[in-house]
Design brief:
The chain has 358 residues and is an alpha/beta fold. It is 34% helix and 18% strand. It has a domain of 99 residues: Rossmann fold (3-Layer(aba) Sandwich). It is globular, with a radius of gyration of 21 Å.
């Protein structure tokens, strides 16, 4: 993690008094974002209303909160109830030839972004990327037999009308200093959580976060989400030997190189500790695009008895480097009972009235 990222973290999640120098910019951000949202909600700016229900999985803060694992859980939950879901995403970090672009088996993370590629490879549902989610939805529906759309992120993309809003909150980091960008980590004020259909708290919430949520009037229903680790999966054939069949333990004991380019690398490192895996941590910024230079030191270490253990999100990028030996640790979301009932009630309401919430 570079010095700039460390400084930002100290502003947002620490007690660095220098953050108050950014107060005028926070006020400007709040004014512009509020006007923009009002323009869409009041009909002053055009909004696309899809002919099928749209579920937005988003958050009010910058950085990883667990939206993608929740999206994958939701895909499976909807399939079990007879729906045929598709996914749209901004495709952050990708650079396709043109937008909208439907993710395919030949795509790389450099072309379509790490999260869309991960969703496609894990779930095999159609995934379309476009910074304009409305355009992505139209392309998804035109080319695929889909009866419900999931938007991975996009809570603030008000150009797209939505039937269900799910806001994911990091139970460990909460809302930081509760300031808006750039003074704090929030895209919208905490009060925005009163308007969503459900708040999903990723991992056990700290006492400060629980107290803050309890103090909010007319709070949306809250549901707990826990991420459970699956079995280690080899990055390539050369990496299979150190892995035990169907095991989360490595056959060759010793330290591994833990590589995490996600919103909260410490959560991944804690998971490895819980699994009694010894490691040296290598955190990178979220959505980091790995280069040969990044991996030169890791590759040198991996040629010995130890190798890399990384996240599934990072694996779709690291698999492009055949010299890297290692494995990724997939995680699966476990949701508190009741969330799917909230979602299904909204979908049934859409069937009756053929209208989104807004």
């Amino acid at each position: 993690m570079n010095l700039l990222n460390k400084a930002i973290q100290s502003f947002w999640y620490g007690h660095n008094p220098l953050r108050y120098l950014l107060w005028p910019f926070e006020r400007l951000f709040h004014s512009l974002s509020s006007r923009r949202r009002s323009a869409f909600l009041n009909g002053q700016s055009p909004v696309f209303h899809a002919p099928v229900p749209v579920i937005v999985v988003g958050n009010i803060s910058v950085g990883g909160t667990g939206k993608t694992p929740l999206t994958i859980w939701l895909i499976e939950a909807l399939r079990e109830r007879g729906y045929t879901p598709g996914v749209v995403s901004r495709g952050y970090g990708g650079d396709p030839d043109q937008y909208p672009h439907q993710v395919g088996p030949a795509d790389t993370a450099d072309k379509v972004g790490d999260e869309p590629l991960m969703i496609y490879l894990r779930s095999k549902v159609p995934v379309v990327i476009d910074p304009d989610r409305s355009s992505a939805v139209q392309a998804l529906l035109k080319n695929n037999a889909v009866d419900v759309v999931i938007s991975d992120d996009g809570l603030q993309h008000y150009r797209l009308a939505r039937t269900v809003e799910l806001a994911v909150v990091d139970g460990q980091r909460g809302f930081g200093n509760e300031n808006l960008l750039p003074m704090g980590p929030l895209r919208e004020p905490v009060g925005r959580l009163k308007e969503v259909d459900a708040v999903v708290i990723n991992c056990s919430a700290g006492q400060a976060l629980v107290s803050r949520l309890n103090d909010m009037d007319a709070m949306a229903p809250r549901f707990q989400m826990h991420l459970t680790a699956g079995d280690l999966v080899a990055l390539n054939k050369e990496s299979e030997q150190p892995l035990g069949s169907g095991s989360m333990a490595l056959q060759n004991p010793g330290r591994v190189q833990a590589v995490a380019g996600i919103g909260n690398p410490q959560r991944f490192f804690q998971t490895l500790s819980d699994l009694s895996i010894q490691f040296d941590p290598y955190p990178f910024r979220d959505h980091h695009r790995y280069t040969e230079q990044d991996l030169s030191e890791l590759s040198r270490v991996a040629m010995g008895k130890n190798f890399i253990v990384t996240t599934e999100k990072d694996a779709v990028k690291l698999q492009c480097f055949p010299q890297v030996r290692g494995a990724y640790l997939p995680v699966n979301a476990k949701l508190q009972e009741g969330l799917i009932d909230v979602i299904m009630a909204r979908l049934e309401d859409f069937k009756l009235h053929h209208s989104h919430r807004y």
